[in-house]
Amino acid sequence: QVQLVESGGGLVQPGGSLRLSCAASGLLVSSTVMYWYRQAPGKEREFVSWISSPSGLTNYANSVKGRFTISRDNARNTVYLQMNSLKSEDTAVYYCMVQKFGAAYWGQGTQVTVSS
């Protein structure tokens, strides 16, 4: 059974930083592409970033490029999203996702609020 558990969200001031974690079970993050998405209030869920395996190649939405960094720790079977220079428009629920066994698996999400 694939399970994804996000953590690390919270309230941060504009310009601040947060690191989100996505702990996976039922699969190895080292052997599959892992994604981060987000959904702001009243908006559709949108792509943020992915990291491939085994090369670790990464990709980002234009809106976060240069500010966010995706990474993984194979020993912890966890994927991270380091978010720097946060803006109010980054406020959203952040989800990690994996496509496995013909289905998409989502975590429960973690709230990120950027506000002064």
Describe the structure.
This protein is mostly beta strands. It has no helices and 11 strands. The protein has strands at 3-7, 10-12, 18-25, 34-39, 46-51, 58-60, 68-73, 78-83, 92-100, 103-106, 110-114. The strands form 2 sheets. Strands 2, 4, 5, 6, 9, 10 and 11 form a 7-stranded mixed sheet that branches. Strands 1-3-8-7 form a 4-stranded antiparallel sheet, with no helix packed on it. β9 (92-100) and β10 form a beta hairpin. The radius of gyration is 13 Å and the shape is globular.
Number of alpha- plus pi-helical segments: 0
* Share of β-strand residues: over 45%
Mean pLDDT across the residues is: 96
Query: Roughly how much helix do the residues carry, as a percent range?
Result: under 10%
Backbone CA Rg: 13 Å
Helices and strands: which structural class?
Answer: mainly beta
For the termini, the CA-CA separation is 40 Å
Question: Largest sheet, described in full?
Answer: 7 strands, mixed
User: What coarse outline follows from CA principal-axis ratios?
Assistant: globular
Number of strand segments:
11
Low-confidence regions: none
Secondary-structure map with pairings?
Elements: E1 3-7, E2 10-12, E3 18-25, E4 34-39, E5 46-51, E6 58-60, E7 68-73, E8 78-83, E9 92-100, E10 103-106, E11 110-114
Parallel strand pairs: 2-11
Antiparallel strand pairs: 1-3, 3-8, 4-5, 4-9, 5-6, 7-8, 9-10, 9-11
